Amino acid sequence: MAEISEAHDSDSSKLQDSGSEAPQRPESEPDFDPKITRKTKPGLKRLFLTFSVLFSFLLGFPFLWKSVEIYRSPLPFREIDSLSTQLRSDNLLFPLHFHALFVGFDSEPDSLRRSILSAIARLASQNPKCSNNYTLSVTVDLDSRCLRSPTSSPHSSTYQCGSITAADFVQNDDVAVDERLASVFGGKTKEYSVVVVKGGNERAVVGKHRHAWMVVGDGSEVEVAAAKVAELLVKVFINGGREEGSIRNEFMPVGADGKIVLSFNLLNADPRDWAYDRDFEKIDDTLLAPMIEALGPVANISVESQVLYHTPKASFSYWNQKLESYVFSTKDLPFFVNSNEWHLDTSIAAGGRSKILQFAVYVPSAKECPLLLQLLNGEISKTNGFISPMWGGVVVWNPQGCLKDSEFKSGAKNIIPIQDLENMFEVFIGQFRQLFGFKSVNVYAGASGDWNLLPSERGFTEWELDVLSRQHTCFNLHSCATTLGSLSRLVQSLPRMIIMDEIGKQVKFSLEAANLALSNASSRVYESSAASSSKASSLAEDAFFHPSIMSVSYYSFEHCFAVYSPFFLPVSMHVLLAALKELRRYKQEKAKNLAWKAKANSAS
Amino acid sequence: MALLRRPLLVLLLVVTHQFLQLWIVFGSVNEEGQKQEEFFEELLLKPLPDRKLLTHFHFQSSAPPSSNGRHHHLFPKAISQLVQKFRVKEMELSFTQGRWNYESWGGFDSIPSSNAKPPGVELWAVFDVPQHLIDALWKNLTHTLSGLFCASINFLESSTAYSAPEWSFPPASGNLRYGTLPREAVCTENLTPWLKLLPCRDKAGISMLLDRPSIYRGFYHSQRLHLTSTGSGSEGLDPGIILEQTLTVVLLPNSQRASLARASEKHIQPSWSLRSIFGKEVSGKCVLAENSNVYLLLDRGLVAELKQLHKEDEESAEKVLASENYWTNPIFELSAKPDRIFIEESSLLSKNSSILYKFEVEKYSESEPFDLGLTWKIPVVWLCQQAPLHASRFLMGSGNERGAIAISLKSTQSCEGFTGANFDDERCELRVDVFQVVPWYVKVYFHSLQVFVDQQPKAVSDIIEKIHVSPSKDKVSPGVMELVLKLPCSVSSAALTIEFDKGFLHIDEYPPDANQGFDIPSAIVSFPNFHASMVFLENDSLNKSPLLSKFQEKSPVMSYTEVLLVPLTTPDFSMPYNVITITCTVFALYFGSLLNALRRRVAEEERFLKDKAAKKSGRLPLLLSKLSAKLRGRHSEPPHSTPGSSSLVNSKLVFKVILVAGLAVCWQYYFS
């Protein structure tokens, strides 16, 4: 204590900035009060020091903020928005071209074209999501010369005048006529043609390619024919001949990665009665392979098959004396599939998001054989099968011997007769078509008359595939836009979520593929646009379901606070208090100084 | 001529190959008259010396090669897809609960050497692909299997969890991967998918007996899946697959006798029937099975004992045992008449031969279910055949720093007869293979390997003929040790010790409940010179029974040691936060005091002190005056304290308290 006071005495003269000089000569200035006046200016050294500490502290905060920041790959939010607005604002138009050819009619092509166009406009209910942009050309063939409307259409010029005559349609062989038309119009052009011929017995047929023809009686009016043509164009060629509102139009049983696995199961309800096997290879080659090839642009289909045993159905059937068989009514159908016992496994060969469609043949046991499915109106189902949308189909097959159980050996290995098997697979193909939304019957019943639909041996005709491609593209683009939109909303709503570079890349590629699909669709390349749209949608799904998004999506603010508060809370207290105190003291001392100065001035 | 012909032949081969491929592309392989897919179901029952019963279910499905992989009649689709997708040549997956008791349940038969498995999950697979692709396939395979069997097999994906043994694991090959999960709990959710691979599941046939409570009440159960793919996929054909599914259960039958009170009956083996142990009976075979048999095996030791009991008419003992009506005899009684009796062909190794009774389930039906019962009439005591050495493993040392693993091999007394494996008596040697995997955090020092034979330390090079070591890499791969020991035949005990340091894991790497300890997987001790095989005399129907042909196969005798539990130093898991807090507090203290020191005005404080000193006469008088004031009961008034200033101080204090309380309320409000 003594030393300090000595030191203080020795160098007190140096301490200019402190108020210590004031009380040193109290005697010389009798009215000097160190509490309220001060002679020297207050010093700035300590004030400066504390404030510099405070400021460096504040400057450090941005660095700290930067250091706890997490990595977020930049996502093209604006492009995502523009894609969805583009799709929403009806820019996804599929250009279609129709060509109506009237043979043997003597009327103005212009007026015909006008009446067909007005009929189309009346019929076409615009799909809210994907619309079509159609052009129509009408040709009236008068043996020697052709009248075309519009005269300068680039599409109708492919048709050579007089190459189709009424004589071509005299024969009743629809397949031959179809081939003839295909050779005339050429299979490569993407236009849809309708030929209306006068004379002969009346019929209306839609071919396997993109053609239809109609033979009308001699006395019939051209206006009626035009109305029927318009209906064909709208309902069949544009909409695929399906009823409105049966299955939602954009509903496609295709996995997010564009793959379908067709899993064929043969279910022997009780092998103690009989166990059946089937020659799957033969069916695979003859029936399934062409269909899979035809559906190539829409979906990548793989096939697998197995036989399962001890798989009873989940609900009971009742003996019907009149039919001499067990009857399973439609209202019980939801309980037919027994998911406990039918272990129709998901496939190991299929990748994660492939769509698996199960097609099951149910062989009833002796206790419930023959088993028939009864429709709601009391009739017996002809196919003895049913579909479950997005799941698959079931066909009940009653073995031959179950009526007369005489020559049947229990437990013997039997093979389903090939004829039955073919019928069964035809039913399956019909069910498969139904899952895609097409009709399984070969007649389209329109308001202005019926059209016979010529079935293709590949399961799907060319115009149906076009419909599927268009619909697939449309569905995929919309789902891609929705997924990317949700992703961008999610990312923007969680600012502390880590976003890997890979996700950014996937989003970018998905957008590129979507744009490619859009441009392809507008140039009528349906197959490639379907392919790139499915790529876009699958990439968008990949990005959305990326594992890194699912796992440690963010680390919380509370965590951050808990880690940093033990340091920053006490230190900031010190720094802030010191700064405040120094500031207050400085003001106080300055006021003292000013007071002294004022006094000095008044005194002098 | 030959030279000329060869290119032509090659060309022909190439052409046919291409043609074949083309054929495959169009999926038109349609070969009639191929071997059919087959399924066999069998059950083996064997009384064990310690009053328990071994039940061994054996199911085998086979798919012939070159069948169309897209359609299967009986074979499970999932397995064939798995084999095709991952190019699996051979694979074995086992789920085990409990430990096989080698001492009392035997260690020399085919059943323990191929069905006794380490607890938890064991998976090994051999792949038919080049080396660099194996690891990727293994990882995908583990994930697929984990989905297929509802187990956490996917933990074997990490490279620290599996190893690639070079030669000591029996199906040794460079393309092998081996991994175990000792702590996996096994229960019905693993059995159900396993049953789904059987064509009849548990709806018909022998598998109807699989009553879950009885199985999981057992002392040991091991559910195994072994698949071998035959024929290569290089010809463009799908490989043929043999899928072997076994379930080995050791149960203690409930004694059916009401009066256990009688002292003599306490020693009688408990009598049992299928109904009493499983609560179910077999009502006919699975119609899809080629054959469906139940076997009752009386092993060599038991048969020898039975002969001993028949001593009075020794010359006819053999006859009696094999005679048709042996199933009711003075010692035990069977409730069903066996369809066939097999006697094991006497081997060089032992004079005794085991006896097998065969029951065909086919003959029984729902109205007349099959129930096999065995009733003992007099007490019988026997021993099962042991492996030449009994292996056990334990930990040595204490503390959390280091320790040692010891594998001890003890000669079983019964092995004298087996020394015939090496004929030269002077240089008779016993070969023992040891395969040991240690996780990376158990850092083994391979130089510290010591060998003791009959309690005497021996030079390592004298005993170890061959050694292969791949040291562990931290957080990358486990350590693998493969040894071939040559022990003298007269050995009565041998031990291997190896020291290790316990490593430290990162805080993220600790599993939940880290204080329980870490498992070191079982070591595998195999005796390649000894083969467990049983050849039964009547060979005509053997090729139809996969179980009996399995018995005939010469499989090396193997045994698994115990799983070790190593306690590692586990941190206090809140430690990082504590460290942060204390460090921050120290920093804050330092910072605060530094700041205070910097803005301290020494001279001014001195002056204040002096002022005070001048005003107060001294400390002692002040204290005295305070004391006197207190004594007088009056408030002493310090000379210079003004009432105004004290009230100011009080209001300031109150204000501060209110401020802090307000802050606290705001804080609470904001965060709730």
TrEMBL record, chain A:
Q: Mind telling me which residue stretches traverse the membrane in this protein? A: 47-65
Query: Keyword Transferase, does the record have it?
Result: no
Identify the keywords attached in UniProt to this record, alphabetized.
Answer: Endoplasmic reticulum, Glycoprotein, GPI-anchor biosynthesis, Membrane, Transmembrane, Transmembrane helix
> What does UniProt give as GO cellular component?
GPI-anchor transamidase complex
Q: Which residues form the signal peptide?
A: none
Q: Name where it mostly resides.
A: endoplasmic reticulum
Species assigned in the record: Hibiscus trionum (Flower of an hour)
Q: What is this protein called?
A: GPI transamidase component PIG-S
* Recorded coiled-coil stretches: none
Q: InterPro entries from the xrefs?
A: PtdIno-glycan_biosynth_class_S
Q: Where is this region: Disordered?
A: 1-37
Pathway membership: Glycolipid biosynthesis; glycosylphosphatidylinositol-anchor biosynthesis
Q: Which family does it belong to?
A: Belongs to the PIGS family.
Feature: compositional bias, Basic and acidic residues: 1-14, 24-36
Q: What GO terms in the biological process aspect are recorded for it?
A: attachment of GPI anchor to protein; GPI anchor biosynthetic process
Membrane-topology annotation of the record: Multi-pass membrane protein
Subcellular localization(s) per the UniProt record? Endoplasmic reticulum membrane
Keyword hit for DNA damage: no
Automatic annotation (TrEMBL), chain B:
Q: Which Pfam families match?
A: Gpi16 (PF04113)
Keyword field contains Transmembrane: yes
Per the UniProt record, the lineage of the source organism begins with: Eukaryota, Viridiplantae, Streptophyta, Embryophyta, Tracheophyta
Tell me the Gene Ontology biological-process terms attached to this UniProt entry: attachment of GPI anchor to protein
The identity of this protein, by name, is GPI transamidase component PIG-T
Q: Which superkingdom?
A: Eukaryota
Q: Do the record's keywords include Transmembrane helix? A: yes
Q: Which UniProt keywords apply?
A: Membrane, Transmembrane, Transmembrane helix
Q: Which GO terms describe its cellular component?
A: GPI-anchor transamidase complex
- Membrane-spanning intervals of the chain: 577-598, 653-671
Write down the InterPro entries for this protein, in alphabetical order: PIG-T (IPR007245)
